[in-house]
Amino acid sequence: MVSDPFAVFRMCCTRFRSKHRRRTSATSVWRGHDTQNFGEGDMGKIVLSFKSVWDALADTAEQAANLRARSGLMRQITDLVGANGWTQMEAGVKCGVTQPRMNDLLRGRISRFSLDALVNIAAALGRPVRIELQHPKQRRLTRGRRSA
How far is Cα 139 from Cα 148, in angstroms, rounded to an integer? Predict the structure, then answer.
């Protein structure tokens, strides 16, 4: 049992950031994220909150969207392989990839797969991929009360 529930998350963040060897600027870290201060004893500590883990890992919204799309495809392909009870070798043959490559996919190594490669794997399994754009959430404008 892990005593710190966020240890795995921090380990993944560190591994992802060191693998991509990029330097985050202060503006990319703070832009668009909520910050909160907690308690008197914690004055000076700032806690960042993110909508998803991909927003925390990525420097830009575009990178986060790409990671979100790739992770969704990887999860669905992994579920399909598990539901059919295929071994990694059998799944690799059906997908047109090697067993080590299938192992990477089933283990969730997202940095080793492009969106293109995942679409090709899904197509090889006979599963068409549909990509659609979502409408941005529109903010409702509220009118202030007028005093008479």
Answer: 27
